[in-house]
Design brief:
single chain, 277 residues, alpha/beta, Spore Coat Polysaccharide Biosynthesis Protein SpsA, Chain A, eight-stranded mixed β-sheet, three-stranded mixed β-sheet
């Protein structure tokens, strides 16, 4: 069976990592129907690598799009989304990789639950630059938790590389926003009353370098707060909720600055709340 899934990868200056990401797709136990690589104005030879990957694999399997200027991951993902042809779309970041059974598990679950608009899976497995991965076949039993309004507002449980959505939906990433734009989309979907599920299984490997996060902490926090302001302006949340959520976001940021270990424990408690609620 060829899963009706389009994989979308925004590519910006990722010449050192994109081959690993695509290789993890090619090694799926169920290989998705198409892969869309969107070069977002890279200046490091990424475009040449994407052309090589298209030649290495079937040309009708990999599609490559070249954006002449860097517009951010939202624009790149939206461009790929608009070009996708399959029933479902799955996102993968250019510096991450998937467990070989990612598509098998998630696509199978989505097909068995056709009323669900989207799903993501449990927090990713952090890894060094080791590849190939030491992966084992997974136990097929896992829990699926429907996200509530309050849960999604308090905490983003998803790495973007874990998300699978129905393609033909009237949602897109905010093309202007560059930080926490993915979280804003998940919140909009849930606040509109759409079915969005968290699958309690780890299927993504994250290889992001520490400095890529630390240098953007403040911008990410500003993006997080801006999300709540936009939700209030669009009347999806009330003013007092916006103030409470902004305070909560600032509190998490302060805890992170003071003690990363305490922040990690705080995130663990929030995750525990998800899986037990």
């Amino acid at each position: 069976m060829e899963p009706s899934v389009s994989v979308i990868i925004p590519c910006y200056c990722c010449s050192d990592t994109i081959s690993r990401s695509v290789d993890s797709i090619a090694k799926q136990t169920l290989i998705p129907a198409e892969v869309i690589l969107v070069n977002d104005g890279s200046k490091d030879g990424t475009w040449e690598i994407l052309q090589h990957l298209q030649d290495k694999y079937k040309k009708n399997w990999i599609k490559i799009i070249n954006l002449t200027s860097n517009s951010g991951p939202s624009v790149a993902r939206n461009v790929g989304w608009d070009l996708a042809t399959q029933d479902y779309i799955a996102f993968l970041d250019a510096d991450n990789a998937w467990h070989p059974e990612k598509i098998s598990f998630q696509y199978g679950w989505m097909c068995a639950n056709p009323l669900v608009l989207g799903s993501g899976h449990a927090p990713p497995i952090s890894n060094s630059n080791k590849y190939p991965l030491d992966t084992e076949l997974l136990n097929r039993e896992f829990q699926a938790c429907a996200l509530t309004r309050s849960q999604i507002l308090m905490y983003n449980p998803f790495e973007t590389s874990s998300i699978m959505l129905k393609r033909n939906i009237n949602y897109r990433f905010d093309s202007v926003q560059r930080y926490c734009e993915d979280y804003f989309l998940w919140m909009k979907i849930c606040l509109d009353g759409q079915s969005f599920f968290l699958l309690d299984i780890q299927l993504t490997y994250v290889y992001k370098q520490p400095k890529s996060l630390s240098t953007n902490l403040l911008r990410m926090r500003i993006g997080d707060i801006h999300n709540f302001w936009k939700l209030w302006k669009s009347k999806k949340i009330k003013f007092n909720a916006m103030i409470l959520l902004t305070s909560h976001s600032l509190f998490k940021f302060i805890v992170l600055l003071i003690s990363p270990k305490l922040h990690a424990k705080f995130k663990y408690l929030l995750a525990y709340y998800y899986y037990r609620s």
